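Q: I'm building a small set of examples for a reading group on sequence design. Run inverse folding on the following structure and report the sequence directly after it, with nothing in between.
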């Protein structure tokens, strides 16, 4: 677990956290691996974890009538998942490994419990997760704008109203 603690401590997401917080976070962490094509989570499922990707690539996808739309591809060093932190704690998209992916998984329920016990830990985690939420929202908006490019505003609205 000492090596896991070192990796967590050195990751930019965790940089600058007090040692007591790192110790609490390491207690909620484990190494995981996903084979190519494996779904890490599915839209609508309960969000119980988040991940630091150590190796590999993960596609974040939303389901559309004509098939999945890849919103973003995450790689080594990036944080995967924020839904564990924000009620109602369910995934808003699918995440699946595009290649062999190794990650550190953090038990979101464990961290939420520890955050309730120590509000300073909760604040630190929320301040680190918030920019990720904003970045994913922006990526989704850009992808959807690109996807609907060429669709006039009025025809899109008619299609939505007619459903």
């Amino acid at each position: 677990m000492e090596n896991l603690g070192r990796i967590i401590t050195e990751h930019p997401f965790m940089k600058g956290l007090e040692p007591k917080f790192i110790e609490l976070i390491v207690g909620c962490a484990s190494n995981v691996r996903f084979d190519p094509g494996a779904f890490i989570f599915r839209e609508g499922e309960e969000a119980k974890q988040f991940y630091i990707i150590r190796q590999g690539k993960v596609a974040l996808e939303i389901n559309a009538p004509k098939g999945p739309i890849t919103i973003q591809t995450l790689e080594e060093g990036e944080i995967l998942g924020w839904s564990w932190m924000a009620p109602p704690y369910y995934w808003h998209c699918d995440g699946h490994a595009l290649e062999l992916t190794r990650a550190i998984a953090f038990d979101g329920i464990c961290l939420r419990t520890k955050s309730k016990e120590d509000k300073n830990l909760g604040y630190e985690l929320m301040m680190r997760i918030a920019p990720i939420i904003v970045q994913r929202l922006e990526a989704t908006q850009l992808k959807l704008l690109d996807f609907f490019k060429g669709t006039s505003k009025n025809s899109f609205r008619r299609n939505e109203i007619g459903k």
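Strands lie at 29-34, 39-41, 49-55, 57-64, 67-75, 79-80, 94-97, 101-107.
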